[in-house]
Fold this protein.
Amino acid sequence: MREKKHRLLRNLLLDILLTGVALVIFALFHHVLPRQQQSMGIVIANPYKTETPADESGGLPDGAYLIASTDRTSASTVISDVSAPVLAAKGGRSTGSGRGGTTSGQKGGSALTEDASDIGDTDEGDLTPISEKFADQYTDTVIVTENSYSSPDISITVTEETTQNGKITYYLADIYVRDITCFQSALARNTYGSGFRDSILDMAVLNDALLAVNGDYYGNTNEGVVIRNGVIYRANRTSCDVCVLYYDGSMAVMPGSAFSVEDAIADGAWQAWTFGPALLNTDGSALTSFASTGRLISANPRTAIGYYEPGHYCLVVVDGRGESAGISLPELSQLFYDLGCAAAYNLDGGNSSIMVWQDAVINAPSGGGRESSDALLIAEVNAYE
């Protein structure tokens, strides 16, 4: 009898051990080990250039096929029959214009208060090509200082700032680009998939970036929209807010259910990220409530992108969990309002929040920082001495 009990106990322990090994193997293959994924492989053509988007070898990315983008006759877009407005406007805080679609079940702190009927055309000033509007920001030759860079296509100024009587430290990169393709993304190991991670510094150096911050860590989920450098890799349903940067230099933030692949192609999407939440309302006002947990809303290290108007952007990285206290979402929203942005969008934060400037990490990442699946970059697309 005793021997039978011992045998049953051994068999039970063996079953538990085998089950544990199987779970570990499953976790490794599905969550830990890098796994290249199949993408939609759609390349959106730049309607403002005649050449075909290409990779470094001069051809399309593996498995990609070209979709010609609609060449719009003007930079303004009229939105009608939209049940939920889009958060971000071409042309700044006063216009309230943008792109949109129908939506339900919003999440991520959009807290839209403006009626969709208020969204319409931009003013005439917004029709100026970004290559011309900020001509005074660029220089005929490359000029580099400790905290600035200017060339015929790019102007960047990076400053270290404090707020709340020095309790919060953040790094602000004020950015002008004459060509939107200078605003790029990088994938870890140059591969789309889960489990691929690199340091933001390594991705910056590999891609000759002048400035880099962490992205949305798309590889940590199968949810949402991934458009990188004109290539649509993924467009899955999501309840999170989505941020889209277009070839014409405009940026829109919308509830995930309002995102449309067809609209992205027609409007000429260049980049799209899924994280959020949106940080400003349709009229550019600060948000005070967010549909998220208290832990995520409370003070943390942050990375976010701000949009003034086509051709003018900012990137913000806030230090936290150290000498700097970090920043809450309402405080971050107020910061972008104070900066004068028309739209702003929260990216991955915490230990991921890193800013690289001229091949060096300039902030103090929490926990020494962590690798990520992607990065946002500002880099030259033309060669200048």
In short: Residues 38-378 form one domain. The chain has two domains: 2-33, 38-378.
